[in-house]
Write a structure and sequence with these properties.
Blueprint (H helix, E strand, L loop, with lengths): L47 E4 L7 E2 L9 E3 L2 E2 L23 H5 E4 L3 H9 L9 E3 L10 H4 L1 H12 L3 E5 L8 H9 L3 E6 L5 H7 L6 H13 L4 E8 L8 H11 L3 E6 L6 H12 L4 H11 L18 H17 L27
Parallel strand pairs: 1-5, 3-6, 6-7, 7-8, 8-9, 9-10
Antiparallel strand pairs: 2-3, 4-5
Helix pairs in contact: 2-4, 7-8, 8-11
């Protein structure tokens, strides 16, 4: 009988257990155990960060499934390590695995604030809210030292530019001084993702993310500072976290959230295999139920990328979860319409190439 491939390192607080090849790879590498290296002698897997200088930091999209047409991601890869992260396959474009590489081989963009200022100052730039944290989390642990997100916020603040933030990181509290000023001008809204209220399940799913209780505290502190917060009950994992939907919404409402949203679990490309591997390790008794529910919602597959369906799925179960959400937000007062962020305050500050100062 074939033995499982031996580990090449020890890992701590990582969700993925392997480094599978990407869909772009033509070769498959298989490790063989030579019997010489006991696990205790293996090196500890540590986070590595390299830097990238992109030509542009504003990414455009025309997706009908999301409510913004532009976004910024200060980092590629994410140390939070959420096993279900739909962004994992993007690491394949770097020649890296969506598995452990995604969590440990990160790319930072330290020049992002400077490049952003240049883009906002271009003649003919048309203002619309910029979404931050749509692919990888801008408040993942390395932001504490790198402060790239802080620099981006300072540029947006100087230009009075509208923005939204999606994060699981409590480090967002560091920037309350900027966010509260933007909020006074109706220029910012923050979304905090809460996947589960079960601390142990959260630790297994999202090993380097602040605990659920800590994220609720972040909602409270942002709300107290006058910043509108949306709780994102996402992703809802059928057969694993879906029973918590109403409790998540209620806890977030009590903490100060004023709006809510949800998204069904998405398993594009290599994420499906990684998530099945995770289920086998952490919830083997739930594995078949979770996968059966997903197949039920995606025409027999674990995921379908079809517009209009990829975020929610279809069928009886998907419709039931959507109905539960609608009833809960109505009961909790989280369904109130929020005014759009202001775009009329935008200005290029003095001292830039487009708007030079007289002094």
């Amino acid at each position: 009988m074939d033995r499982p491939a031996p580990p090449r390192h020890r890992s701590r607080a990582r969700a993925a257990a392997s480094n599978p090849e990407t869909r772009f790879d033509t070769l498959v590498r298989v490790a063989e155990d030579d019997g010489w290296s006991p696990d205790a002698d293996l090196p500890l897997l540590r986070t590595e960060v390299r830097e990238d200088v992109p030509r542009s930091v504003i990414t455009r999209n025309t997706s009908p499934d999301i409510g913004f047409d532009r976004s910024i991601n200060p980092y590629r890869g994410c140390e939070h390590g959420c096993i279900y992260c739909f962004a994992r396959p993007t690491h394949g474009f770097l020649g890296l695995s969506p598995g452990l590489d995604f969590e440990t081989k990160l790319v930072a963009r330290p020049d992002a604030p400077r490049i952003l200022a240049r883009e906002l100052g271009q003649k003919g730039y048309k203002v619309a809210p910029i979404a931050l944290g749509t692919n990888t989390d801008p408040y993942q642990p390395i932001e504490r030292e790198r402060r790239i997100m802080r620099g981006i916020l300072e540029v947006l603040q100087a230009h009075r530019h509208p923005l939204t933030i999606a994060t699981k990181g409590s480090l967002v509290e560091r920037d309350i001084d900027i966010l509260s000023e933007l909020a006074e001008r109706e220029l910012v809204r923050v979304g905090i993702s809460v996947t589960t209220l079960d601390a142990q399940l959260a630790r297994n799913l999202e090993p380097r993310v602040p605990s659920p209780v800590r994220r609720l505290k972040t909602i409270e502190r942002l709300a107290r500072a006058g910043i509108q917060v949306r709780v994102m009950a996402s992703p809802m994992i059928p057969g694993l976290t879906d029973s918590e939907l109403e409790r998540i919404l209620e806890a977030a409402r009590d903490a100060g959230a004023v709006a809510a949203s949800w998204v069904m679990l998405r398993l594009p490309y290599e994420v499906a295999g990684l998530f099945e591997e995770w289920l086998e390790r952490h919830a083997p008794h739930r594995k078949e139920k979770v996968l059966a529910r997903l197949r039920e919602m995606h025409g027999g597959k674990t995921y379908s990328a079809e517009w209009g369906l990829r975020m929610r799925g279809e069928g009886v179960y998907a419709a039931l979860l959507a109905k539960r959400f609608d009833l809960a937000v109505r009961r909790l007062g989280l369904d109130e319409h929020l005014d759009p962020l202001r775009c009329d305050l935008f200005e290029v500050p003095l001292g830039t190439e487009r708007q030079p100062s007289l002094f």
